[in-house]
Design a protein that fits this description.
Shape: globular
Distance between the termini: 39 Å
């Protein structure tokens, strides 16, 4: 079993862990005494309880604007005992009474300040949105970029029942004979190496728009004849996300201030011949499924429709999905305060760390502009029901120079 675990861990996983090769020759003994290593400072807990007076901007917020999103969270949390008293009591609170809602949160919840392991309480806040693409159910000269459903040969391995320490990891791969190997990369899929024939859901007219649809996680597709369909995230190939915006900056192809979603799209239009190679740099690939067209918004990881400007994606290893989160940040490309009660209803491949969030701006072009330019600093307070027992996750420290990369909005 141990050898199987070692084999499976060589797959690329969401944590991007890598096993280091041991030295092949013995290391000679040092000729001088080596000082004892200094014990690392203990990491600061990711969530620390504070008083309501510590929540900057709380008394200025109008909770009624977030109430519908909170009710949606409760619909997914009612089965959890810690949430039942608060969710049950919320039914008696008027949907338009902000003062009663503020009193409700103060009575039933305790605020927790989110902090990074080094104690810093500021983190990165980015944005995402739901785009509109143009496509068809059949390929043509115009519609030639396929949007795929989940492949039949994609394996998902869950070892948590045998190794509890791996409960936050799900390994994805495929069989090659008797071996489990990583699934096909984006370049492999785009070049036709993966057995995906027959898995095409739709065909769209723009490779860059399809790439960003995968990063956003959900969207709508306008079909010939006026029909519009709704698609959402179904699964992923398990390979690591890499920011193409950062690659363009590192190569000198884009200045840092233009490495936004719109900047990347503009570069792609000017450099069609170089585009396939650039997109292939990000080996991660997302597969989709059809969603009901009558949903109030795209489905987040919590399983409820997202609410524009009131839902955020978080790292669920640190922040429980469904929890209210008071966010103190600024508007995109601005110092103007943006302090709001949000709901942690989604996750994202690039959203890593306790003080890290992706702000859902909604559907359409204007939402896309806001999302594409949002890269702000912010603080977060997580509201947990009184009596909730929060257990910090046991997560191994990342390797040196390992980071989440750019946000979903920056490619």
């Amino acid at each position: 079993m141990k050898s199987l675990l070692t084999l499976l861990l060589t797959l690329t996983i969401s944590a991007c862990a890598t096993l280091e090769k041991p030295p092949t020759a013995p290391v000679p003994a040092p000729t001088a005494p080596v000082p004892a290593p200094t014990a690392p400072a203990p990491a600061v807990p990711p969530l620390q309880p504070v008083g309501w007076e510590a929540v900057s901007g709380w008394t200025d917020e109008e909770p009624a604007a977030a109430w519908e999103a909170f009710v949606r969270s409760c619909s997914a949390l009612r089965g959890q005992p810690a949430w039942q008293p608060a969710c049950a009591a919320s039914a008696a609170v008027p949907a338009s009474d902000g003062a009663a809602q503020r009193k409700f949160f103060e009575q039933y919840f305790t605020p927790y300040q989110a902090a990074n392991p080094d104690g810093a309480t500021d983190g990165l806040i980015t944005g995402y949105y739901e785009p509109l693409l143009h496509g068809s159910r059949t390929p043509s000269k115009r519609f030639r970029y396929p949007l795929y459903g989940v492949p039949d040969d994609l394996l998902i391995v869950d070892l948590s029942s045998v190794y509890p320490e791996l409960k936050s990891l799900r390994l994805r791969g495929r069989l090659e004979g008797r071996r489990v190997v990583p699934y096909y990369s984006r370049a492999d899929i785009d070049n036709g190496a993966a057995p995906l024939k027959g898995k095409e859901l739709y065909w769209v007219d723009d490779a860059v728009e399809l790439f960003f649809l995968q990063i956003q996680g959900s969207g709508k597709i306008a079909l010939p004849g006026g029909e519009t369909v709704h698609v959402g995230y179904a699964d992923q190939n398990g390979l690591p996300y890499r920011s193409i915006g950062k690659v363009l900056v590192d190569r000198g192809d884009l200045p840092l201030e233009k490495a936004s979603m719109q900047g990347i799209k503009d570069w792609g239009k000017r450099n069609q011949a170089k585009l396939p190679e650039l997109l292939g740099v990000n080996a991660s690939y997302v597969f989709f499924r059809d969603l009901p067209n009558d949903l109030a918004g795209p489905l987040g990881a919590l399983g409820v429709p997202l609410t524009a400007e009131r839902s955020i994606a978080v790292d669920a290893r640190y922040i429980p999905l469904g929890a209210p989160v008071f966010l103190a940040t600024t508007w995109p490309n601005s110092a103007k305060p943006l302090n709001r009660l949000m709901l942690a209803q989604d996750t994202g491949g690039a959203i890593r760390g306790p003080v890290r969030a992706d702000f859902y701006w909604g559907f359409g072009q204007e939402a896309g502009k806001q999302a594409g330019s949002m890269k702000q600093s912010g603080k977060m307070w997580v509201l947990l029901p009184k009596g909730y027992v929060y257990t910090p996750p046991q997560i191994a420290a990342p390797r040196a120079n390992q980071g989440a990369g750019c946000s979903c909005s920056g490619g």
